[in-house]
Amino acid sequence: AFIAAVAYVDPGNFATNMAGGAQFGYLLLWVVLTANLMAMLIQSMSAKLGIATGMNLPEVCRERFPRAVSFLLWLQAEAIAMATDLAEFIGAAIGINLLTGLPLFPAALVTGAATFGILGLQAYGFRRLEAVIAALVGVIVVAFGLQVLLAKPSPSGIGHGLFVPGFEGKESVLLAVGILGATVMPHVIYLHSALTQKRVVGATPEVRKRIFRFELIDVVIAMTLAGLINMSMLITASAVFHSRGLD
Question: Are 166 and 31 in contact (CB under 8 A)?
C-alpha cells in the first residue's frame, strides 16, 4: 500500500492542493478528505481482487471484457502513467537543481539513475523496495508536518473546511475536480492488485480473508499518511498565501 501511496503525493496533488489553499483557504479541505476516503475504498478493492483471485486487475479485464475495450483501457492507463511520470521526473530534477545547484540536465540523469536504482531493489526481494518507498514517504510526512507547524494555521478554519462542504464559484468546483483527478488514478488501481496477487498466496478462502484483513490495515495506514500530506499542502497554502491575499 505504501508503494501505491506514492502516487497520491505526486506533483498533480501538489499543484491542485497548493492552488486550492492559496485561492480558497481551507474551503476545499473536505474535498481532499473525501478523495482520500475514496482512495482507501478503491485501493482496498484492488488489493482484494489480487488476493482473492490470484490475478491482477488488467488480467481480469482482459478475461472479462471484449478485446477492443481491454485495448482502450490499456491505452488510457499508459497515457495517464506517462503523463504522471513525466511530471514526477521533471519535478525531481528541478528539486535536485534547487537543493544542490546542479544544472537541470545532469539533475535529470541523477533522477533517472536513482529511479532505476530503486526499482532494481526488486531483484533482492519486495521488502527492500517497500522499505525504501516507506522511508521516502516518511520524509515527505515529516517535511510537510514541519511546514504546517511553521505556517501556524487556524484550527477553527481547518475544522470548518474539513467538515462543512461548500464551494465559492465555478473556479472552486474546477479545483475540486482537479483534486479528485489527482487522487484517484487508473494505473495505481491496476498496480495495487498486482502487488498483492502473489505476495502471500492463501491456500483456502479463510486464509485469503485473513490476508485481506491485514492488507486492509496496510491500506488504511498508507492512505491516511498520503491524505495527511495532501491536507498539509492545502493547509500550508491557506495559512501562508491565502491569509495574506496571495493566490
Answer: no
Overall pTM > 0.70? yes
Cell 479485464 belongs to residue? 61
CA distance 203 to 231: 40
Q: How far apart are CA 107 and CA 192, in angstroms?
A: 30
Q: What is the DSSP string of 88-110?
A: HHHHHHHHHHHHH---HHHHHHH
CA distance 95 to 104: 9
Q: Residue 96's pLDDT band (boundaries 50, 70, 90)?
A: very high
- For 211-236, write each residue's pLDDT tens digit: 889 989 989 998 898 899 999 999 99
**Residue pLDDT, tens place only, 114-123:** 989 988 988 8
Q: What does the alpha-carbon distance between residue 185 and residue 139 come to, in Å, rounded to a whole number? A: 23
Closest CA to 27 of 231, 148, 228, 168: 168
- Cβ(33)–Cβ(234) under 8 Å? no
